[in-house]
Amino acid sequence: MANSSRAGAALATVAALGMGALAWGTLVERNAFTIRRETLPLLAPGARPLTLLHLSDIHMAPWQRAKQDWIRSLAIFEPDLIINTGDNLGHQDGLVGLEYALEPFRNVPGVYVHGSNDYVGPEAKNPFSYLTGPSKSTRRTKPSLDTAALEAFFDGLGWLGLNNTARAMSIKGARLEFMGVNDPHAGFDRLDKLPGALDELRENVGWLEERNGPEVVSIALAHAPYRRVLNSLVTNGADVIFSGHTHGGQVCVPGYGALVTNCDVPRDQVRGLSLWHHALRAAYLNVSAGLGTSIYAPVRFACKPEAVLVTLTGDDFSYSG
């Protein structure tokens, strides 16, 4: 009888802890927005620093005013460049909230690529199904989102689309070359187009012909950090790659980390800054844990939502990380 009572008490304790963790992850942590800061010595010696704001996986729904206001508050950092790695919408009516959140960044230079949740909305499913492996995009059966309106808004902000193409801009004297792919998780990427796009860009810009100008920094964007995509971006000369998609694992175990990555990136690179090596080259890889979740799985545990402030400095700056 005593053993039965102890077992019952233990089960009750475990259940209480589980309910407490679920309540924390649902009510508190998923709205505990944080800023992660990184420094990358990629500019020429003596160059003026550039502040990059990396936003990803916003998954905006119209009622998420706290998230909207928090994103607006990031304008206080006066970023020189916005990097948006997709999955902006979490509801068919999410664009209005997204427009409100990002309006303070109008006329701030920016670049973006899409995730699947810039094309199709979320669908109700078992919130723990992600533990069985990467989710699958089922475009035909999900509600459609107004991708054209989203792109028109980004264009109005002054941002450049990088879906399977390359662009360039100069900011504070720094020469920045960008390449990007459409969502690899949905199979929309066209890695075969990048070499030609880069060749055409370099021919038109003409920076490589100027011997006395600063070196060009190559920045790559891909929503989902699949290995084949990262390898291709490194082969094409990326100095730094920005990705999202993983939500940092979303539900993590303290002391262990992410349980899953929702792609094939190594688990220890599911979030944060690291190096990605391929063949004889390497690039910095910054994977954002993102700012949102699916409205059908509104929980985070040991994995706070984040925006990332990345400072590019001259390569005479001492970096440790």
TrEMBL record:
Q: Which domain of life is it from?
A: Bacteria
Q: SUPFAM superfamilies in the record, alphabetically?
A: Metallo-dependent phosphatases
Which Pfam families does the UniProt record give?
A: Metallophos
Q: Can you name a GO cellular component term?
A: membrane
Question: InterPro entries from the xrefs?
Answer: Calcineurin-like_PHP, Metallo-depent_PP-like, Metallophosphoesterase_sf
- Calcineurin-like phosphoesterase domain boundaries: 51-248
Any one Gene Ontology MF annotation carried by this entry is: UDP-2,3-diacylglucosamine hydrolase activity
Q: Which GO biological-process labels does this protein carry?
A: lipid A biosynthetic process
Q: Which PANTHER family match?
A: CONSERVED PROTEIN, TRANSMEMBRANE PROTEIN WITH METALLOPHOSPHOESTERASE DOMAIN-RELATED
This one is known as: Metallophosphatase
